[in-house]
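[Meeting: bench + compute handoff]

Bench side (C.D.) handed over the final construct sequence. Compute side (W.E.) agreed to return the predicted structure before the next meeting so the bench team could plan truncations. Sequence as handed over:
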Amino acid sequence: MIKLVVTDMDGTLLNDNHQLPPNFWEIEQQLTDKGIVFAVASGRQYYNLIERFESIQHRLLVLADNGTFVKKHHQELFLNDLDKASADVFIQIGRKIPESFIVLCGKNAAYVENATPYFLEEIQKYFKRIEIVDDLTQVNDTLLKVTICDFIDSSTNSYSFYESFESEFKISVSGKQWLDITRTHANKGTALQYIQQQLGITPKETLVFGDMLNDLEMMQNAHYSYAMKNAHPQIKKVSNFETLYDNNENGVVEVIQRLCL
């Protein structure tokens, strides 16, 4: 019996226009009525996610910033922060990457030191609280991750600048334009394991959905691991199942209806 449903957002629950499935709210209510916990696990900022799910924020489990920060209705449940010295190194490197911009993700806000309009327009899709600062290395906040917004291609451009750090840190291609850098064990899978332990829910009672490489560890911690039809080949390889429909065809809710409702 499935007791926990966890879904990624972009490319998974949301369509390419960043919209929820039309019947999402009805499906979520039915899950709640059956006592099934619903959670979102995303590279997005906590404040962005809470705004999107404002009407159910009192019961929503949020695994934000790639699982580095887990909250439920103002209660902090889990934190996997990044040390400042390492963040400073990644910031210095990020300043040299062509057509790319740095987002320093903290508990209280996301910080940038570039106000280029098209960059700000892009990050406002994923971050609610944004502060423009003169120097990211002077930010005073609990740090979660360093994110690179890459307008060329994160997998072929910015990734190469950080590849040598993979033995010590988690370097995740989170989307065509996004690269996330966290502590080695800071990922959605680690956060999911914590939630399972706290709720007394096993991987065999867990249903997860994902599409990109930042979902990899999460897929490995659930029996009902569903790669989206549109998922990265490596996510399909590690997942036990694949959705019949992609993110533009409401693939997530189809599986939830079939397995849970």
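W.E. noted at the follow-up: Residues 188-199 form the longest helix (12 residues). C.D. will use this when planning the next construct.
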